[in-house]
UniProtKB/TrEMBL annotation, chain A:
Membrane topology: Multi-pass membrane protein
Protein name per Swiss-Prot or TrEMBL: Succinate dehydrogenase hydrophobic membrane anchor subunit
Matching Gene3D superfamilies: Fumarate reductase/succinate dehydrogenase, transmembrane subunit
A matching Pfam family: Sdh_cyt
Transmembrane segments: 27-49, 55-77, 98-119
Species this chain originates from: Aliishimia ponticola
Required co-factors: heme
Function: Membrane-anchoring subunit of succinate dehydrogenase (SDH).
Example GO BP: tricarboxylic acid cycle
InterPro entries: SQR/QFR_C/D (IPR034804), Succ_DH_anchor (IPR014312), SuccDH_FuR_B_TM-su (IPR000701)
Pathway per the UniProt entry: Carbohydrate metabolism; tricarboxylic acid cycle
UniProt keywords, alphabetically: Electron transport, Heme, Iron, Membrane, Metal-binding, Transmembrane, Transmembrane helix, Transport, Tricarboxylic acid cycle
GO MF annotation list: heme binding; metal ion binding
Gene: sdhD
Automatic annotation (TrEMBL), chain B:
Protein name: Succinate dehydrogenase cytochrome b556 subunit
Chain ranges passing through the membrane: 30-50, 70-88, 109-128
Cofactor notes: The heme is bound between the two transmembrane subunits.
Domain of life: Bacteria
Family under the similarity heading: Belongs to the cytochrome b560 family.
GO CC terms of this entry: membrane
Quaternary structure, from the entry: Part of an enzyme complex containing four subunits: a flavoprotein, an iron-sulfur protein, plus two membrane-anchoring proteins, SdhC and SdhD. The complex can form homotrimers.
Gene: sdhC
Length: 123, 129
């Protein structure tokens, strides 16, 4: 006699042990980035390639600064989820866990450093 | 959970190697993952560039000079392609998640569309920027 439901049997399996929240976050950030990436690529691209003074002036304007800040936050969050998923699939045990911690540290550090640079450029 | 087989379950063979021939569905999916991971490096370059711009002109000219050298341009071209490809690939995931275009034949067409679309968008970016 089996007392377990099929759902209970499947719960906690899979490489990430849980997945629906992660999956939903990927859908949300993917949809957001489908709008943000084209805006960012061309906005950043227009500021990229100028002289030092031109770059300073360009990124102190609100629109380029806000678009770049948004991209740093949403983009790096999305990339972190992407990298985490890859680690969960291929690296297991303690090594996998530590790699996910490291990837999170790198992503959030890049986010903070980039935002700091933007604030300094904009003000 | 005594009745659950926890070890000894059959595993499917890894998708790259002798067991599967390369297919548009698998290759286009693998490329989404690769371009996603590569974009962490792109983010590093962009943050480094912004940080040096916020620090000093001499620091900026070193990093900006490297990124705008011939090799740097080539690298930025490839990295831009990766961003566009990943965006199109993730857009395909959104469409799939909403329940559309999941048929194999349409997915294969979408795979081609991602490769061609990313290339067109990258060339467009290089022209505009």
């Amino acid at each position: 006699m089996r007392y377990l439901t099929d759902r209970k049997r499947a719960q906690g399996l899979g490489s990430g042990r849980s997945g629906t929240h992660h999956h939903w976050q990927m859908l949300v950030s993917s949809a957001a980035l489908a709008v943000l990436v084209p805006i960012f690529v061309f906005t950043f691209g227009l500021g990229y390639g100028g002289s030092y003074e031109e770059v300073l002036a360009y990124f102190s304007r609100p629109f380029p600064a806000i678009v770049t800040a948004l991209m740093l936050i949403v983009g790096l969050y999305h990339i972190l989820q992407e990298v985490t998923e890859a680690i969960e699939d291929y690296v297991h045990g303690v090594a996998g866990k530590l790699l996910i911690v490291a990837a999170s540290a790198v992503s959030y550090t890049l986010m903070a450093a980039g935002l700091f640079a933007l604030v300094k450029l904009a003000l | 959970m005594a009745d659950v087989n926890r070890g000894n379950r059959p595993l499917s063979p890894f998708m790259i190697g002798q067991y599967y021939r390369p297919q548009m569905t698998s290759i286009s999916s693998i490329m989404v993952r690769i371009t996603g991971i590569v974009s962490l490096g792109t983010a590093f370059l962009i943050v480094l560039w912004l940080l040096t711009a916020a620090t000093s002109e001499s620091a900026f000219s070193v990093v900006d000079g490297l990124m705008r050298s011939f090799i740097g341009d080539l690298l930025m071209f490839v990295l831009t392609w990766a961003i566009w490809y990943h965006m199109l690939g993730r857009l395909r995931h959104v469409v799939w998640d909403l329940g559309y275009w999941v048929e194999v034949e349409i997915s294969e067409h979408l795979g081609w569309a991602m490769f061609i679309g990313a290339t067109v968008l990258t060339i467009l970016t290089a022209i505009v920027v």
